DNA sequence: GTGAAAGCGCTAACAG
DNA sequence: CTGTTAGCGCTTTCAC
């Protein structure tokens, strides 16, 4: 029923009548063997159901064959996609993946990553990190890659350019004839500033002014809570750019509740291109931030670093504008 | 810049002028110490930045302080919620979490879990498992819990009762006056049978017949692909129950494209209660399968098993019916 | 309350 | 091609 004890390399060696060193080399495919030996080892392993003990292995090699992946909120499809992408490429190379959902936690992050760090060969971080922990992270002696987060120097990053994305979106909105453009941002997010800046530059270059509002988080409920304040004011914007799709979706939900039509009464757009954006009504114009690809690249890069290769400090992906119904401005009656 | 070498317990012992055994006991809070020693150890640890090496620790204890969590598709909010719940309770107890996204993979599952098994103290599995791997899983000597999957005996499970949920939903639909009721199922899913059975029993008890269709997967696209076949037939059902919300959403999307109104022309319902179901138009009637709670409970149970406690073989949660617009039948004109 | 010593299972020289 | 051996960093008796 329950096995007495898992077979060790020693058991295999004994059963095969060879030394443990030979078994080790066999298991790690480090050389060739005489057919006889090879066969005996193979048989012994099979009959004993032997598996390498990763802990023992990593004790001597110093490598764990695991990567740590910290995200803000696995429930946000944006992060789920990052995990998915990373998982796919990691798995191909035989790496397992620790995932940690930080749940918007602001404290204890250091401690958490600290604990993780000892268990992995590298870290992919897509979380808010207190400024003071940055140096520590950068110098902890293991590869670290930030994803989706703009940072100069200090650290390696993989990201889709939010400044560029915001520019694409803003230029499109202006072309659509929108004049009163607003941004609903979440200042605590590290990517907030560049999205804001990208919008602002384009909008102001047109001689327009960007109205800026704040939301209290990055989930749909954050958008729902902020919506009334933005939608019911006398100088209501003609189009609202939310800092991400979830927030935009929150605005959408609340607009319906308030009897405000999108895009007839007000336009709406977001960032990320999560799946629901495609099928909500009206479908949501957004900037595809290539979440899954970021995850894939981040993992590739971290594996490259582990392999001792030199990689780009700042791997940048190009965002794509997804034009949908929520910004289909009705022909202006003026 | 980069530290020469991570501090070991030996370094701490030397620095504090005590033995490594003492440091070990201190770190693991296994007894009390003379104030002097305690202080010296504390100082040494702090100044050296010492952290326990988990690999070394687990070599001797045989425990890894990690749990493996295998899901079908992390992009499906249902699974993301399970991960989230599990992660939350695991973290509180100091357990890290390996997450594996199986991506609907049908082969290599054994191998994958095999590799995982050596790295964890327990496994939470929410994936399709080939029948022949069941015994192996059940007897691999480590706690295993299946989530969301009906199974008698053999193995521990945490699940929300799909049979019950289907019953709730079916009774409600009948009460709504629906007569031609259909189920769009995915036969490969382990939970498919009980959802189907739950519907069928109620429907047939009413003297009605359940139409059954098949979809080719559990994502929105699966629903989209299957929709036309179901929606355009002469004997179109009055209401369609999809095997999960994603598939239902696919039907919804495709119905729009075909110019078929929900709920006016045909009703629609799903299972899971993922977030988008609440805000699509029309909002989707569904059975809340309590994904996040399942994740929490599964982790609690696995930790209990690891602690040597006896737990329920089959932990069952009650589903809740979420009545929304997609089944708001217009007053029948007949 | 503290320390010495025996491994945990494995890899990596190094010898043969 | 195969084997011997010295640890990797830590916990755990068992003495003192």
Automatic annotation (TrEMBL), chains A, B:
Molecular-function GO term, any one: DNA-binding transcription factor activity
Pfam families linked to this entry: LacI, Peripla_BP_3
Swiss-Prot/TrEMBL keywords: DNA-binding, Transcription, Transcription regulation
Cross-referenced CDD domains: HTH_LacI (cd01392), PBP1_LacI_sugar_binding-like (cd06267)
Domain named HTH lacI-type: residues: 7-61
InterPro entries: HTH_LacI, LacI/GalR-like_sensor, Lambda_DNA-bd_dom_sf, Peripla_BP_I
Annotated protein name in UniProt: LacI family transcriptional regulator
Record lineage: Bacteria, Pseudomonadati, Pseudomonadota, Alphaproteobacteria, Hyphomicrobiales
């Amino acid at each position: 029923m329950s096995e007495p004890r898992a077979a060790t390399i020693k058991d295999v060696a004994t059963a095969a009548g060879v030394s443990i060193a030979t078994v080790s080399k066999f298991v790690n495919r480090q050389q060739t063997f005489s057919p006889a030996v090879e066969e005996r080892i193979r048989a012994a392993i099979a009959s004993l159901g032997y598996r390498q003990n990763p802990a023992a292995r990593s004790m001597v090699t110093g490598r764990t064959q695991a990567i740590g992946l910290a995200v803000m909120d696995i429930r946000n499809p944006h992060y789920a996609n990052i995990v998915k992408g990373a998982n796919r490429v990691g798995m191909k190379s035989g790496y397992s993946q620790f995932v940690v959902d930080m749940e918007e936690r602001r404290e204890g992050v250091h401690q958490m990553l600290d604990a993780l760090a000892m268990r992995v060969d590298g870290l992919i971080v897509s979380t808010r990190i207190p400024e003071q922990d940055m140096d520590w992270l950068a110098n902890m002696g293991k590869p670290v890659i930030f994803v989706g987060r703009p940072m100069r120097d200090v650290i390696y990053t993989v990201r889709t350019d939010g400044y560029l994305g915001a520019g694409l979106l803003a230029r499109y909105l202006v072309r659509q004839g929108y004049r009163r453009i607003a941004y609903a941002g979440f200042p605590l997010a590290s990517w907030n500033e560049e999205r804001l800046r990208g919008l602002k530059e384009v909008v102001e270059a047109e001689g327009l002014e960007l109205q800026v509002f704040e939301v209290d988080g990055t989930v749909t409920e954050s958008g729902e809570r902020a919506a009334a304040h933005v939608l019911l004011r006398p100088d209501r914007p003609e189009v609202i750019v939310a800092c991400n799709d979830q927030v935009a979706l929150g605005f959408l939900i609340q607009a319906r509740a308030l009897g405000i039509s999108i895009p007839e009464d007000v336009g709406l757009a977001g960032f990320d291109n999560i799946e629901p954006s495609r099928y909500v009504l009206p479908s949501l114009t957004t900037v595809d931030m290539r979440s899954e690809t970021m995850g894939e690249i981040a993992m590739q890069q971290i594996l490259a670093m582990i392999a001792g290769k030199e990689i780009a400090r700042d791997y940048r992906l190009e965002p794509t504008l997804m034009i949908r119904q929520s910004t289909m401005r009705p022909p202006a009656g003026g």
